[in-house]
Every structure is written in structure tokens, then in C-alpha cells.
Amino acid sequence: METTTRQPGVRVPLIDEEHAQGRTAELYEKIKQVTGLPFVPDMFRLTSTNPRLLEVVLAGYGGVFGGDTLPRQLKELISAWTSKLNGCPYCVGTHSWFLSEFGGSDELIDAMETATTAEELPVDERTMPLMQLVTKVSTGAYKITDADWEKAAAAGWSEAEMLEAVFTASLFAFINRMVDATGLGSSVTRSRIARLADE
Hints:
mainly alpha, CMD-like, AhpD-like, about 200 residues, Putative peroxidase-related enzyme, 2 strands, peroxiredoxin activity, AhpD_core
């Protein structure tokens, strides 16, 4: 029988890796493969008592980070920036760490703490229209216009790249809200992944 634990401040029970069984254990192994980490991040464990939901979270995450339509560094930038806009420091820290692992500059990572608009991000002219587009996913997706898409396309982004960028921002809007609603985002100051930077 699977044993759940209660992490202080988190509103849902979590299944520890050593206690996972059946489908949950299988998904935990897939999560470690997809993330390249030796442990299952707590964000995934939020849905560990319901493998059906855990599978959905893993499918979304794997769909974004398992593909090569956009470079990994850019997807991590979009993930960290979206999390910043959505007020989820827990996810900002996590994906700033990944951003650094995939070649993000110190200047770019520092901007995650100080920037309040896409225009303040130290990115090149081609990337800026894409970041402006994904910013609107969090600040008012209903305000996105054909002109926003056309501006990104004119900068050289393909339809497939723009779709993946918007999907990534949308996925992290979901993840940010799940992390915060369940209390994970406020239960610890930094995720286990973000703490890897100290090692």
C-alpha cells in the first residue's frame, strides 16, 4: 500500500518515491528520465495520489521539454519569465536554474529578479517579439492580436515555434497556479531544484 506524507504548508498529500507503487512508481521513473534529475520534483508529487492527473502533468511537461522545435534555453526562459509574471517565485527559481544549465547568461538570470516588462529582458531583437507575445499569455491572453503574431513572424519565428512558445507559457500558467493553490509555492523559499545552485 502506498504511504502518503504531509509536507508542512502543502494542502495535498504527497507520495514519496520510496513508497510509490504501480502506475505512480512507473510515472515517477518517467519523470526522472524526462527531467534528467535523480529525484522527482515536488511539483509532480502534488498529483501523485491521482496517477491520472500525474500523467497529464507529465505529458504536458514532456511535450514541451522533450521536443526540439525551440531551443531548450529559450523554453526555460519562457518558463521562468511566465512564472515571474504569474508571481510564482518557486517556479522562477526552478527554471532559472535550468536556464543556467542550458546556457543562459548571468545577466539574463539576474533579470528574472528585476525585470517587470519583456522590454527589460536582455534578449536579442529576434527574440524580443516572441517574449512580448508570451508575456501577453500571462498578462491578458484575450488581448493578443493578429499583429502580435505577425510581429513575431516578421522577426523570423515559424508558426510551429510560435505555437510551442505560447503552449509553454500556457502550460506554466497552469503549473504556477497548481503550485500556488496547493501551498507548495509558499511552503518553502526555494525548490529542491533551485537549491542545486548552492551545491
